[in-house]
Structure formats: structure tokens, C-alpha cells
């Protein structure tokens, strides 16, 4: 009896040992809480689980979806979730991060990681570097290319070892740099402060046989949500008299021609445009009072116009594609969301105090029903930053803020070439040191539309 007892104890211990060893890979999908993005993430998760069923010993510890397991506002920056990921997966050796619109070849992942050492402090992915100083990285730049920060292209995924996560999990993120989160990939690289292994044949821009992760070239058809047409979008353009003769003509000769409903809000009447003047003082920066007054004006104006479903707030130096915007909005048709390029304020520390916001230059797209609710939003000063105040108000309303990499706060040259290759384009911002018409023609005009497979 005693011998039998020892036998079963040994079997039990062996089963535990095997279970621990078989849970060495953890995958986190950088998903968002809305029907479309969550659906994309679930598709990827199910595909990964399906692949593991045909592998003898997959050693998959789990697949996390960011919006479910880490719903805090700063989770998309990666840094705040590392400690919890490590704590909950003490026996894991490797942590893969990927976007929802990706394909993960699990067998290739497993084969590659067998050759690596998880106890070492390493990470790997498709590393990119800035070619010149850029505003989105606060103009930090090393003339010597070997000394420049290399950061992972999220679209191609990246892997961190347990050794690396253990080293950085206890970093006090509140002491790190700026209170603003702009580019999660670049800022993560600054925190890690270790050279990323650049493996472009494993973490790929396009499909190849040895790829571990690559972005999907075909995206889900969103027409089952209902097609969004150009005449359901109302464009509200913020301008002022000093830009009537230079910025506004560019807008009118490019994407303004595709806008069915467009209104220019200025400090001076100009019938040649024409402009709408609201009873608010013009400010050099911030424009909070102007923006909130525009919302009140449009809420009242569109109350009886049931055809308009979306309001697009832009600057007069925003460049965008109207047909592509209509196409992508089909993915959130009927949902009360705010859509654009997401930044964050104070979201790495005490996240209860922080919030995400959509940066204004690339365009802020709002469901009309949400705009009606925003009419109660207050500015703490007329020249307060409108996009940040809007972010606070959206948080107070518990509204859904959706990030899409197709919107851009800066010019094309402010982004890595590989980043621009990974996503379709909806917008860019600024006319500074560029030919805006040429930028529009090259990046945004083309045939002025996506097929559904390019959303």
C-alpha cells in the first residue's frame, strides 16, 4: 500500500511538472473593447487555439485579449501590464504580443523559441529606427545610426523573454519620462533600454514561409454592419482668417471635393469659402471653447437630420480621404464611438487619474448620438487643449474611444516607412515643409477608395 501511495504521488508530481513545462508560451492580443476590434481579436485567438490542437506538445500557457484581461486605460502602452503578466504566469518562458489584425504561425513560433534562452534578458521583433528627428518622438535623435533607439513594429508582433519581463516588471513607471503616451512601441523601447533582435524573416511585414507573425493584407468585410456612405458624414473644419488664403484652398482642392457635408468654422466671415462664425473668441492654441461650441451648434442643427450619422472634426491643415473614411466607418456603423489616433495622459501610473484622448490633427470622428451627449462638456479655459478636454469628457461619459493606426497626427515623413507599409491611410496632418497636394495625391487620393479587404 505504501509503495502504491508513493507511485501515485510520483505520477502526480510528474503531471504537475509536465503541466508547468507545457505552459511556457503566453500570447497577448492588443485588442480593444468594441464589437469590431473584439471580434477580430477573438478570431485570432480561436485560430491560435485551433493550430495548437494539431501540435503534439504546444506548450501554450494562455491567450489573453487586452480588453478583457487588462481593461485599464493605459494597457495599450504595454508597460503597465508587464508586472501582472509575469505574476500570473510564473512558469512561462516567453511572451508574445501581437495586434488583432495579425496572423500568428504557432508552429513557427515554437520552433524558433526552442533555439533561444528565456532566462536571458532579450526581446525580438521587427525593429525600426527613425531616419530623422520627428515630433512624435520629441525630436530625440542620434546622428550615429547604431546609437538610435530601435523599436518593434507592433503590426509584426514581438516577443519578450521571461528574464526580460522579470527585470523590468518592477520599474516605477511614474518616474519615466513624460506624462503623455504617444507612441507605445517607441516608449516601450526606451523603458527596456536593450537592443531588440531585428528578425524581419520571423516578424514580417508580409507573409513568407518562416514568418511567426505578419499583418493580414486582407481585412474583415464590415458591410454586414451596414454600409456608411459619404453623405452620412458631416465635416466640421476649424480654421481662422489668417489661413483662409493658403490652407483652406488646399483642403477645397483635395479632399473637400469629396465631402458631401462640410462647414468651415472661423473667426471671420468669408463668403468665398464660405465660413461660419460662432460667438467665441479666437485663440492661438487649444481651441477648447471653439470646439465645444461647434458641438453645440451641430447638435442643434443636425437634431432633425437623421441622414447624418457621423461628425468628423478636423483642422484646416488635415489631409484625409473621404471615401476611405466612409469605408472604414462601416466597421462601427450604429455604435456610439469616438474614433481616431489615440494618445494618453497619465495612464502609466495611477490609471484612475489618467485618460485616453484622440489627437485632433489627424481627425476626430464622433457618432452623432455621442455629440449630443458632449454638449454638456465644459472647458476649464477657452484655450485649453480641445482634444484633451474632449478625452476627459468621453471618460466621464464612459464612452468608447477607438484607436485606429490609419489616422496620423503628423506628416508621412514623421513615421517609419515600415509602419506606413503596414496599414492603409486615412489622414495626415500639417503642411509644414511639405507639398500638401503632393502628399494627398501620393498617400490619400489614388483611386480614393479601399475595397473591403483594405480596411
In CATH's first tier, which class of the largest domain applies? Alpha Beta
Q: What portion of residues belong to β-strands? A: 15-25%
Tally of separate domains: 2
Count, helices = 14
Average pLDDT number: 90
- How large is the radius of gyration? 24 Å
**CATH topology category name of the largest domain:** Spore Coat Polysaccharide Biosynthesis Protein SpsA, Chain A
Helical residue percent band: 25-40%
Structural class: alpha/beta
- What is the strand arrangement across the widest sheet? 14-13-12-15-20-17-21
Question: Regions with pLDDT < 50 over 5+ consecutive residues?
Answer: 7-20, 448-455
Spatial shape: globular
Please identify, by name, the CATH architecture of the largest domain: Alpha-Beta Complex
Distance between the termini: 66 Å
Q: Give the strand tally.
A: 22
| Major beta-sheet overview | 7 strands, mixed
Protein name: N-acetylgalactosaminide beta-1,3-galactosyltransferase
EC number: 2.4.1.122
Pathway: Protein modification; protein glycosylation
Subcellular location: Membrane
Please describe the topology of this protein.
Elements: H1 2-21, E1 25-30, H2 35-53, E2 60-65, H3 66-69, H4 82-88, E3 94-99, E4 102-104, H5 106-113, E5 123-125, E6 127-128, E7 151-152, E8 158-161, H6 162-168, E9 180-181, H7 184-192, E10 197-198, E11 213-215, E12 233-238, H8 247-253, E13 261-266, E14 275-277, H9 288-301, E15 310-315, E16 318-320, H10 322-329, E17 337-340, E18 342-345, E19 355-358, E20 364-367, H11 368-373, H12 386-396, E21 400-403, H13 417-422, E22 427-429, H14 436-445
Parallel strand pairs: 1-2, 1-3, 5-10, 12-13, 12-15, 13-14, 17-21
Antiparallel strand pairs: 3-8, 4-11, 5-8, 6-7, 9-18, 15-20, 16-22, 17-20, 18-19
Helix pairs in contact: 9-12
